Amino acid sequence: MTSTRDPIADLRRIAFLLERANEATYRVRAFRSAAKALAGLPAAEVAERAGNGTLTTLAGVGDVTARCVAESLAGEEPVYLRRLVATEGSDLDAEATALRAALKGDCHTHSDWSDGGSPIEEMALAAVELGHEYLVLTDHSPRLTVARGLTAERLRRQLDHVAQVNAALPEGFRILTGIEVDILADGSLDQDDELLARLDVVVGSVHSGLKDERSKMTRRMVTAVANPHLDILGHVTGRMVSSRPAGVTGPGDRGHRARTRAESDFDADAVFAACAEHDTAVEINSRPERQDPPKRLIRRALEAGCRFAIDTDAHAPGQLDWQRFGCERAARCGVPSDRVINTWSAEQLVEWTRDRG
Questions:
Q1: Are the CB atoms for 118 and 309 separated by under 8 Å?
Q2: Is-contact 20 11, C-beta < 8 A?
Q3: I need a labelling partner for 72 at 20 to 30 A (CA). Which of 43, 122, 339, 356 fits?
């Protein structure tokens, strides 16, 4: 068979679109597993197996994925891919489109080092394809054991690995080092200060005690925001407006099976005033099941003078394209692009975080 199409690229594109469309994890895994199985074979063998019908004898390749490979090798866009492209979501309005175009990177993402479903390299290459200039890797901190949070030693190893990956990535793109660090009950951050100082970007989020009474939660958040290592306050209210979506396929998957969850109770004016005072950005989390903070609080943070970060909190490559959801909500609340830190270049972002620390 001869073809101008790459069947492995088509399988990965299907997986990406399934992740972006919030489809079931098992569907995503089927296409990523098939792509991984075929990537280790010579192209001639893949073509031969497609021709004699033996692709499905390979571990990780099923009837549907084998059919997609055969169509791709025949020079045709796979029917499965064509249907996904034809049913993509609606376009953004002009304001949200302009804000999305202004974004140069994503400040909150996860890999299979903690509870994400894909290697760092795959997340980075997906970001390159989306036109990003950088991706901040923010795997979890140690006390979130259900998400395989990184101990200090594992985080040091990850920093070395990121340096190696960056050396092999396309020119003009880089992975920035980071962490999503737990905000502990007393407002302290769940990682060594020495390591936090080494990182490019630190996102801090509350993952436990979400039902703490109002004054306790307010003190906890204000204390964290005042920490010079904390750059971004992540998913501020902790709410879940729906069950968690597909795409989180890592070992910590069970830790993300949240149902709907009410917002934590805290003094938003006090927290946002602290964010403005300490120049800590408020995250607009783009995950469909979070939509956090709600629009009324985005407006209050804007009035308080806060900066923002429009992040995906992606746990899979296709979820990196969820930034459009955050841009939509930010645009509806009148957030201007010059208040969004990931409209900056990587150099500007790192200079800001270094000055803050």
A1: no
A2: no
A3: 122
**96: three-class secondary structure by DSSP:** helix
How many Å separate Cα 8 from the centre of its chain? 23
Distances in whole angstroms, Cα of residue 246 to Cα of each of 48, 295, 315, 321: 34, 24, 10, 14
Tally of CB atoms within 10 A around 342? 27
Specify whether the CB–CB gap between 120 and 173 falls below 8 A: no
Range of lowest pLDDT (64-78, 150-164, 205-219)? 64-78
**3-state class of 270 per DSSP?**
helix
CA atoms within 13 A on the CB side of 268: 19
What is this structure's pTM?
0.81
- For every residue of 206-259, DSSP letters joined together read --S-TT--HHHHHHHHHHHHTSTT--EE-STT--BSSSPPTT--STTGGGG---
Q: How far is the C-alpha of 46 from the C-alpha of 66, rounded, in Å?
A: 10
- Nearest-angstrom CA–CA distance, 328 and 76: 35
Is residue 215 pLDDT above 70, yes or no? yes
Q: Which two tokens stand for residue 345?
A: 């270049």
Beta bridge partners of 240: 261
Distance CA 226, CA 278 (A): 6
Q: For residue 178, count CB atoms less than 10 angstroms from its CB and return exposed for 0-12, middle for 13-18, buried for 19 or more.
A: buried
Q: Confidence band (pLDDT; 50, 70, 90) for 18?
A: confident
The crossing angle, in degrees rounded to 10, of helices 94-102 and 323-332 is 120
**CA–CA separation, 81 and 84 (whole Å):** 5
